[in-house]
Amino acid sequence: MANVNWRTINIDALDPDSPANFDLSTLAPSVTPVATADVQSLASQIRQLLRGGDNEGALRGALENPPCGADDKGKEVHLATVIEILQSIRQSEMSPLLNRIYSSPGGPEALDVLMKYISYKGMGQTSTSNPTRNITPQPTGFSQIHPRGATEGGGQAMSVLLSWHEKLVEIAGPGSIVRVMTDRRTV
Amino acid sequence: MAPPEVHHLFHHPIADHSFSADRQTLAVARENTVDLFKRNGNKFQLTDELTGHDKTVTGVDIAPRSGKIVTCSQDRNAYVWEPSADGWKPTLVLLRINRAATCVRWAPSETKFAVGSGARLIPVCYFEEEDNWWVSKHLKKPIRSTITTVAWHPNSVLLAAGSTDGHARVLSSFIKGVDERPEPSAWGERLPFNTVCGEFLNNTAGWIHSVAFSPSGNALAFAAHDSSLTVVYPSAPEQPPRAVINISTQLLPFMSLVWRSEDEIIAAGYDCQAYRLQGSEHGWQLAGSLETKGRPGAQGHREESALNMFRQMDLKGKATDDTKLDTIHQNTITNIRAFEEAGGKVTKISSSGVDGRVVVWTL
Question: Which residues of B touch A176 (CB under 8 A)?
């Protein structure tokens, strides 16, 4: 017994009441699993709305069905869809559109979901230099005026997200940021 | 409406505060001690210090009738302080916890009190006459994380507890020989110790900062770190609740709440001001701040001369002084309590915060 290093004993394994020994999923709200194929079909429906000029309908559709229960692939697909919608809406339309969503039933929740996509999913994604994403031309028609390589493409997407973030905080308040940080249902 | 009464006691955070029943004595948890203040005119003067804890005191509560003070601390101990001829006499309470105590509240019957702790359990403490000793019984199941807040039902048997696992729970703390058998209510009929009468999770599962029963005990409100407040109306024992109303606000999270009456809640927290919420079973909404906007004379237009403006710009690089918040509390409000009641309604509340102020508000 003398040469046992007490500090390396995993005491949690020996204690039946230890927090390491219970199912952590009971602490989180339940989410229904979503298949990646469903996310993709939703994405194509939303793209159709977008092509038809119905920006608000597209955004609403994307925010009302967040794939919290999907795997990483499904979440990636939906993130790309939301970013695409955000980039196709002009800056002057942002505030009135957010106002309309906020005052409609279920609106505050939809804006909380939007906040999740802007900060910190969207910003987190564009800041990690993802070469394949930055080299492809932006589908929004943003002209690449800075021919300085990959990081600038991320900067473009970031500026769109930042202006959305500003408009969104004006309407949904700091409460929505706190909710994003608190919420265990990640998008 | 009378202006709020502001007492700036010291420049330290106040973890918890409690007034005696006559509202002449104020106990404030300050670092490792509890400071006792006596009202002198319209000011509070430091009269006594309760020293004994060797880590930060996290909770203090004065029993309204017996005048006993219970304190708990991060040193994992609780003391019951009784007035005697030569000052306050502490009695150590055997909590049997291996993590910090986080909060403490006397039951309305004053025969027992509950302590929240980081050890994922709630010691319910009562006085054993034979041994002349405060002993505790542990509420354990199904708590999964630190208890941040406890609140008593008026019948002194049901206890609400909020936890960092995102659940607000209603538990029975019935102790044979101490409690009388409670009247059956919507929460439950037979209530042996550690019966779980309700377990509630809000949408985001954010951790709970504050819980409170309504004055009748037939509704439970809890505030969580997702800036929301949830009110639960139970229907019958073992049945899903009649209504669960969740209001997510645009504000920063609430740290503390009190029911003013069955249809009004006052909540305060990281926004440094208290808010009024009104509603019923059919819905709740935010009804504004207690803070009167643009208080005259508070900051006012002192001197708007060009000379002063340029002097300010020279000294500070700006013309207006914006180092003060325009709320009365200058930092997070951590705790609010009922101060005065009349006609079944709370008419005054007291609040304390990180800024070392205790404020009495007229509602």
Answer: 227, 250
